[in-house]
Specification:
single chain; alpha/beta; 6-stranded mixed sheet; 3-stranded mixed sheet; 12 strands; Obg-like ATPase homolog; YchF_C; ATP-binding
């Protein structure tokens, strides 16, 4: 699948859904896993944003072995996005707030209610998960189409001026490349096709990462069941809404994962961990560890980064002054058992600048010092 979202180690998941489907309850459930604010002294977290701990038994094991003075785990930012109603792309409900928030995230948790309850009124009058899925999809496509059509008109006028003035600057060439991508997106959105599920060249992907369209964002579908229905589903993997939902997702969002859960079952740590990890994996993130008696730390990076780029998340100078990386997989470390502290430093392998960091690597970076 093409990489159409930002390439960064600080990515965000957004929770979206129709009103009264359990969206904010899901956010509140996940917010209970929030990292205390004092762990992030240089940023202010808005009330609608939570920074949650990414569960990892490997990290816990390393902390048990090294008993460090400081333990710093990986985190994931989650934003509660204003509720969606039909017509949000035209400004209905909190449409403008909804779309401003969703543009700021890199992946989506789409919450879909799949249980009847008379006390919980649906904005559309009835409970229909397939209709809700379709409304969200169509609203995102409609907003993208508005944005792209406007950009196509703006770029067309500017490019004509560039051509008249024989402007061949880097800025002009970049605009021409982006204009071509926008035209392609315009045609796709007219046909009500998500941008994410088309074939894009590497150069086109670079332009799409700049544009950050809503239909380029990957999604996870969180199917909110009643506690009774969820217990039954976990026992028998059956629910009357499951098959039509799975068929819709398979047809419209073929690479997306579906997680069945219940906001009424907030005590299930396994369920919370599953939702958090699904978002982390969706964004293409992995972890490597630095270890010692002073600190054990889990670092978040994008998949397929080479060692110098991975080192840069610790400090930008580490990439510039990279010499080598001493690497050991977590599995290899664990096999050392009771002798791990005595033997692990002798078991590292030295890797150069072309080494691609793997999930769970334990790494010591060797770098040149800069004055």
């Amino acid at each position: 699948m093409a990489q159409l979202t930002r390439i960064s180690s600080s990515l965000k998941m957004g929770i979206v859904g129709m009103a009264n489907v359990g969206k904010s309850s899901t956010f509140n459930m996940l917010s209970k896993q929030s990292v205390p604010a004092e762990n992030f002294p240089f940023c202010t977290i808005d009330p609608n944003q939570a920074v949650v701990k990414v569960p990892d038994p490997r990290f816990e094991y390393l902390c048990q072995i090294f008993k460090p003075k400081s333990q710093i785990f990986s985190t994931l930012s989650i934003i509660d996005i204003a509720g969606l109603v039909k017509g949000a792309s035209e400004g209905y409900g909190l449409g403008n707030e909804f779309l401003a928030h969703i543009q700021a995230v890199d992946g989506l948790y789409q919450v879909v209610r799949a249980f009847e309850k008379e006390k919980i009124v649906h904005t559309e009058g009835t409970m229909d998960p397939i209709r809700d899925l379709q409304i969200i999809s169509e609203e995102l496509m409609a907003k993208d189409y508005q944005f792209v059509s406007k950009r196509v008109d703006e770029f067309s006028k500017k490019i004509k001026k560039y051509e008249a003035n024989k402007n061949v600057s880097v800025e002009a060439r970049d605009m021409v490349e982006q204009f071509k991508v926008l035209q392609k997106c315009d045609e796709l959105l007219k046909k009500k096709q998500w941008v994410r599920y088309q074939k894009w060249t590497e150069l086109e992907q670079i332009q799409l990462r700049k544009i950050q369209l809503l239909t380029a964002k990957p999604s996870i579908y969180l199917i909110n069941l009643s506690k009774e229905d969820h217990d039954a589903y976990m026992a028998k993997k059956q629910n009357k809404y499951a098959k039509p939902i799975e068929q819709w997702v398979s047809k419209n969002s073929p690479d997306s994962k579906i997680v069945y859960y219940s906001v009424e079952n907030q005590e299930s740590q396994q369920l919370l961990d599953q939702i958090i990890m699904a978002g982390y994996d969706l964004l293409g993130l992995i972890r490597f560890f630095t270890v010692g008696s002073d600190e054990v730390r889990s670092w978040t990076i994008k998949k397929n980064l080479k060692a110098p780029q991975a080192a840069s998340v610790i400090h930008s100078d580490f990439e510039k002054g990279f010499v080598n990386a001493e690497v050991m997989s977590f599995d290899k470390f664990k096999k050392l058992g009771d002798n791990a502290l005595d033997q692990y430093e002798k078991k590292f392998s030295k890797e150069g600048k072309d080494y691609i960091v793997k999930d769970g690597d334990i790494i010591h970076f060797k770098t040149k010092q800069f004055k």
